[in-house]
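Record type: monomer structure entry
Structure origin: computed from sequence
Chain ID: A
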Amino acid sequence: MPFAPVTNYLTIAFLIMVLTGMWLNDDTRISFIAGVIVLGIVVFSFYAFGLGKRTRVDTQIEDEDEVINQ
C-alpha cells in the first residue's frame, strides 16, 4: 500500500479522535461505555476459555490421534 506505515498511524489517530468525540458528547457517551463493557467481556471470555492458548502442532496431532484411536 502506498504510504503504508503513515496511513496505519493516521487511521489509529482518527479512531482515537472518534472515541474521544463519543466520550465528550452526552448523547453518545452511553454507547461508548456500553461498547467498552462489551469489548471487555469479549476479551475476558477469550482468555477465560483458553482460546488464546497456542499449542504445538505435533502435540495437537497426537491428541487428535488419541481421540481417533479410542
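Annotation 1: The first helix runs from residue 4 to 24.
Annotation 2: The chain has a mean pLDDT of 85.
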